[in-house]
């Protein structure tokens, strides 16, 4: 059910409008002047606002301007309602930031149709403020489960943050990944609360509530978790909307996309600047990796910004030369991580990363050596 805030100084008009809109199923908030309207808009973040134009102390133009100036409310569609019908008034309304203009006397059917049109047309996410610097988005995909993808992502993420960049780790793994747990945070379900209603616009505020910060300064966006993910999976539009919000706040966004190519994962991959395919050095994992690269090419992604990182978790030598691996995978190989089962286990137990636990270890250096792959040309 969409919530509509109606702002009008005329009490009778206000009640009538409220009654009309309630009857067709909208949830209604009423405000008798501009100040009250702004307060309720910020408090309740309605789906749409209908505001009268001529009101004492603060008119509808000013209400619109202030709503547009506030990051919390700037995405809300606004319909201005007025007895005036001259063209210049309409222009002034649109210039102040109104989305539509309805002249009084209002025909209920017309107002309802215009409200519905605005609600249908609204973008999935508030338009980003112009001139914001955008982050570099790097998607991490696993050739299969359990290859060490999340370990790689959090270690490079922390190493990059330490080098002075702002990094955000976003967990889009479809069955609920464990980026947050690896860094000692219990994932909250705030993202779930946001996504439960598919018509909800994901706002920067929602993301702000769901985000968590690690002591290193890295920020994390937890996934929709475990069993809930099955009933409330992230959809393609939401995934894109979320990335559009977070990329305004940091230098790098590393996205854990897991190993299932869902619609959300695919839509995220399409806006990534780089894709890191994580695999093990064995024939089975290579086979899976090739299926993924085929899929990426099928959905129209070129392989220029795609590279593989191999994680050799077992001490048994893998027996492949670098050129053999390149021949098999047919994409760039960005790096190989050596086996460190004890250290990986120790880091998991301590709810930290290998780079934090043993910064001088050869594997920490291998993670750090991958940083220029993501920072060059960005
Ligand atoms: N270089 C390494 N050497 C040995 N073990 C490692 C190494 N890197 C990661 N591991 C271990 O491998 C296991 C899987 O790692 P991780 O959870 O990062 O993989 P994943 O691909 O994200 O898995 P999932 O598909 O479950 O999300 C973990 O126990 C981790 O500690
Ligand atoms: Mg993982």
Summarize the structure.
This protein is α/β, with parallel strands linked by helices and 378 residues long. The chain has 18 helices and 13 strands.
CATH architecture descriptor text of the largest domain: 3-Layer(aba) Sandwich
Share of helical residues? 40-55%
| Molecular shape | elongated
CATH topology of the largest domain: Rossmann fold
CATH evolutionary superfamily of the largest domain: P-loop containing nucleotide triphosphate hydrolases
Notes on the structure:
With 378 residues, this protein is an alpha/beta fold. The chain has helices at 11-23, 34-44, 60-69, 87-96, 108-121, 149-162, 179-182, 190-195, 204-210, 226-231, 236-246, 263-271, 283-298, 322-329, 341-349, 354-357, 362-369, 371-375; strands at 3-7, 27-31, 48-52, 78-82, 100-103, 136-142, 167-171, 212-213, 219-221, 252-256, 274-279, 306-311, 332-337. It has 2 domains: 3-121, Rossmann fold (3-Layer(aba) Sandwich), CATH 3.40.50; 136-375, P-loop containing nucleotide triphosphate hydrolases (Rossmann fold), CATH 3.40.50. α2 (34-44) runs parallel beside α3 (60-69) and α11 (236-246) runs parallel beside α12 (263-271). 44% of the residues lie in helices and 17% in strands. The radius of gyration is 25 Å and the shape is elongated. The strands form 2 sheets. An 8-stranded mixed beta sheet has the order 8-9-7-10-6-11-12-13, sandwiched between helices. A 5-stranded parallel beta sheet has the order 2-1-3-4-5, with helices on both faces. It has 18 helices and 13 strands. Residues 127-132 have low confidence and may be disordered. Adenosine-5'-triphosphate binds at residues 142, 145-151, 173, 177, 258-259, 311, 313, 337, 339-341, 344-345, 348.
């Amino acid at each position: 059910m969409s919530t509509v805030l109606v702002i009008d100084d005329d009490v009778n008009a206000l009640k009538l409008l409220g009654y009309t809109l309630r009857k067709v199923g909208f949830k209604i908030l009423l405000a008798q002047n501009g100040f009250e309207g702004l307060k309720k808009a910020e408090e309740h973040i309605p789906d749409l606002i209908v505001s009268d134009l001529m009101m004492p102390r603060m008119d509808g133009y000013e209400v619109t301007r202030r709503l547009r100036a506030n990051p919390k409310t700037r995405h809300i569609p606004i319909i201005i309602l007025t007895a005036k019908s001259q063209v210049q008034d309409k222009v002034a309304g649109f210039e102040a930031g109104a989305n539509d203009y309805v002249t009084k006397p209002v025909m209920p059917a017309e107002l309802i149709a215009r409200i519905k049109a605005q609600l249908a047309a609204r973008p999935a996410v508030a338009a980003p403020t112009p001139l914001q610097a955008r982050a570099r988005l790097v998607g991490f995909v696993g050739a299969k489960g359990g290859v060490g993808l999340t370990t790689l992502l959090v270690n490079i993420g922390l190493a990059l943050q330490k080098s002075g960049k702002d990094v955000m780790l976003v967990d889009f793994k479809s069955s609920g990944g464990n980026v947050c747990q690896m860094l000692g945070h219990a994932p909250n379900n705030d993202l779930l609360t946001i996504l439960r209603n598919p018509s909800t616009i994901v706002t920067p505020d929602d993301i702000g509530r769901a985000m968590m910060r690690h002591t290193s300064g890295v920020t994390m966006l937890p996934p929709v978790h475990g069993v809930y993910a099955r009933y409330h999976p992230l959809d393609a539009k939401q995934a894109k909307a979320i990335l559009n919000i977070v990329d305004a706040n940091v230098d790098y966004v590393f996205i854990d996309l897991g190993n299932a190519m869902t619609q959300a994962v695919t839509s995220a991959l399409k806006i990534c600047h780089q894709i890191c395919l994580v695999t093990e050095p064995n024939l089975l994992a290579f086979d899976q990796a090739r299926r993924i690269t085929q899929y990426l090419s099928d959905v129209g992604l070129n392989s220029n910004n795609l590279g593989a990182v191999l994680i050799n978790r077992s001490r048994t030598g893998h027996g492949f030369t670098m050129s053999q691996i390149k021949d098999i995978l047919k994409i760039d190989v960005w790096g190989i991580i050596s086996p460190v089962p004890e250290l990986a286990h120790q880091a998991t137990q301590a709810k930290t990363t290998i780079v934090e636990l043993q910064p001088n270890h050869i594997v920490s250096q291998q993670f750090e050596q991958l940083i220029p792959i993501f920072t060059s040309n960005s």
